[in-house]
Design brief:
The chain is mainly β. The chain contains no helices and ten strands. The protein has strands at 2-8, 17-22, 25-32, 35-40, 54-63, 66-77, 84-86, 103-110, 126-128, 157-163. The protein has a seven-stranded antiparallel sheet, with no helix packed on it. A three-stranded antiparallel sheet has the order 5-6-7, with no helix packed on it. The chain is globular.
Length: 165
């Protein structure tokens, strides 16, 4: 598992989205009323840029004259053919048992709780999972090396996307 900083919370105010490149994938990150969700920016139907589509909701009715609008901003429509997906789960409303778009886990973390592999100021910084930092380095001799270290903290709150595999 790898984790990636995709931006600060301030960059993604409620109702906004940000499309980023992470690990060779285009991913859309959405803020729905302070909750963050991430979807692959590729419609399963014909590969359209899904996360560039219109955000909508549902019109529900229990009978004539009764209309209610629900889930405002939680349904994403592909800009090519208007296939609809639930931003929270990636589920399709065309064929919900078969068609879905890949969704990713998202967390919000303060700068001081994140260990980054690169500078956060450089854009997207990789946050490596357990054991990944030393893979390929097993031939390096271990020793009683001592390095001078300095405390580092980041003062922002970051949106982090997890990619498994």
């Amino acid at each position: 598992m790898a984790r990636y900083i995709v931006g600060t919370v301030d960059e993604l105010s409620p109702g906004k989205r940000k499309i980023v490149e992470v690990a060779g994938r285009s991913i859309g990150v959405f803020n729905i009323d302070g909750e963050f969700f991430a979807l692959r920016n590729r419609c399963p139907h014909q590969g359209g840029p899904l996360c560039e589509g219109r955000l909508a909701g549902f019109v529900e009715s229990s009978g004539p004259g009764d209309l209610r609008y629900s889930r405002a901003g939680e349904i994403l429509r592909c800009p090519w053919h208007a296939w609809e997906y639930d931003i929270r789960t990636g589920q399709s409303y065309f064929n919900p048992t078969v068609v879905r778009v890949r969704h990713y886990e998202v967390s919000v973390e303060t700068g001081s709780s994140i260990e980054t592999g690169e500078s956060a100021a450089a854009g997207i910084a990789v946050i490596e999972g357990p054991g990944t930092r030393t893979s390929g380095l097993s031939a390096i001799r271990k020793g009683p090396y001592v390095a001078e270290t300095y405390p580092v903290s980041l003062d922002n709150t970051y949106v982090v996307v997890e990619i498994v595999g």
